[in-house]
Amino acid sequence: MKNYSKFNVPFLLGLIISILFLSCETQDFESNEEQNLYDNFMLEQAFPDETGELLRITLDGDEVDVESINKHYILEGDIKIMLSDNNKSVGRIGGRWPNNTVYYSIQSGLTNQARITNAIAHWESKTALRFVQRTNQANYVYFRSGSGCSSYVGRIGGRQDITLANGCSTGNTIHEIGHAIGLWHEQSRKDRDQYIKVLFENIQSGKEFNFRTYQEQGQDGNEYTSSLDLGSIMMYGSYAFSKNGQPTIVRTNGNTYNAQRNGLSNSDVIGINKMYPPVTSGNTVELRGNNGKYVSSENGSKPMNCNRTTAQGWEKFQVITLSGGKVALKGSNGKYVSSENGNKPITCNRTQIGSWEQFTLVSRGGNTYALRGNNGKYISSENGLQSMTCNRTAIGNWEEFVISGL
Ligand SMILES: [Zn+2]
């Protein structure tokens, strides 16, 4: 049974938690075959082989269960909590990295550093966050070896470690970086009971606290997407911390689901863009096709066209500079141009920048460019004869645009 130590009140007053460190790996580190049947990826956990003493502490006026391991307080398996005198906000509201910039360094000799550079490249390709190698910055992420995969939640000030045991994959690293920039586990949403059922009877003894919402844990936070996303890279799998091979999380209809650790989901990207909004260059541009006509947003009310003889309101776009050399285009209706992934004509009706709203400008000399969507295809003017698409594999005349004002 749980063994709670109760702190006395004066001690509690001095114990104000400023930082959360999430560790994210399971006990199946030693390639436990049975466990692999349940989960096709490794659940992140800070100290996979250890179970700490459970403590109940008061945090922001609420009692919270934490696990004390190696002098760290561990929440949700891979979230580390530090205790300090300052009551900083934690989790998904506080602890942001200024200017969308995360400084980092890597422990020399750390195994398989490509998983870190690949994870960073993934983040930069999907979001407005940039990751810059630290020179002398005070606040930075330090990737180092450790017994599991773990990270603090949000920027905590000073050096903050992301630990990566040899078994931690690129996907695990993407997940840990998610914590470091301020993401909770997806199942910690306070509205999660609308989407999932947590089966506490199947959870390993002592690990139940991993399945509490951030609110139940007394942490501050917010939901930056409209609903729980089972495909989020921050979502635990159905069999996380199972003690008996039975699921610990199921859909509300009782069915299990597959979690993933391949990369950020579209919903992840939407939430992150709210937390770290892309920077607006402020430049307003016009795009003229090789038919001599201008691209129109059609005010978002129908698919876009390249058939306007003059550039007025609907033919003006604001360029939003994203990381990784990508841009988004915002029409005068305040909405973003979407590639629609090449599946249907492009539109200017999106309120958020997700993957489909990101384009790479491919220089064709002078101020002529092609625009490549994240589907790898190019936007075509269709010579102004029909609605524009983003489904061309090569750049021909109809895929070139003169962009004035960049
Ligand atoms: Zn985690």
From TrEMBL:
Keyword hit for Metal-binding: yes
Pfam families: Astacin (PF01400), FRG1 (PF06229)
Key words of the record: Hydrolase, Metal-binding, Metalloprotease, Protease, Zinc
Domain Peptidase M12A: 91-278
Entry's cofactor comment: Binds 1 zinc ion per subunit.
Record-annotated active site: 176
Keyword Metal-binding among UniProt keywords: yes
Binding site for Zn(2+): 175, 179, 185
Swiss-Prot/TrEMBL cofactor(s): Zn(2+)
PANTHER family with a match to the protein in the record: DISCOIDIN, CUB, EGF, LAMININ , AND ZINC METALLOPROTEASE DOMAIN CONTAINING, METALLOENDOPEPTIDASE
Protein name in UniProt: M12 family metallopeptidase
